[in-house]
Amino acid sequence: MTFMQTPYRKSLERMMTGIPNFMPRGHGIIIMSEFEYTAEMCDCRLCPHYQKKKGCTVGHCPCIMDRIDAGAATLREILAETMSEINNRAFQKRLNQYAKESGGYPMTFKNEKHNAVFTEAIQKLNHKDYALMAAVYLLTAEFKLWNTVKHRLESNTIRFDKAMHNEQKRHCNWVQIAQYRTKREN
Hints:
This protein is mainly alpha-helical. Helix content is 46%, strand content 4%. A two-stranded antiparallel ribbon has the order 1-2. A two-stranded antiparallel ribbon has the order 3-4. It is extended and about 80 Å long. The protein starts with 6 loop residues before the first helix and ends with a helix. The mean pLDDT is 76.
């Protein structure tokens, strides 16, 4: 309820009775769901910062997170964008060496069997849960370990808290590493 009569004074009164540093109702944008980009949509040539002759004109890619989610970013781009803030020369040297050695391949498997077991294991899992993907990747590297743990995979989580037999506990180093990694990500 306003006490002033003229429109100008009503707007002043409304402003003075409002909460400081907050926009009044009816202003701004509400995002109800996040749009998911495809790899084709994340092509650098479609970016407004890209020029034909110069290439990308910004120092850091403003769309790197969308490109990573869509699977359009290469390993070299991911490493360059996410690790560029670290000022340790030895780390940067090793990072550059790793990027050259990897050749842009996103994953290195122990052997073909590891690749096949991992691919089969993640078919029904949430591919955007990177902690879970990392844990499954580590656990599938050892066949005996994976046979021990695969029955503990329930609804996009690995139930590490279930008891294991003494014979299985000998093979638990990888389980402990994966469990630590999963807890750290959450």
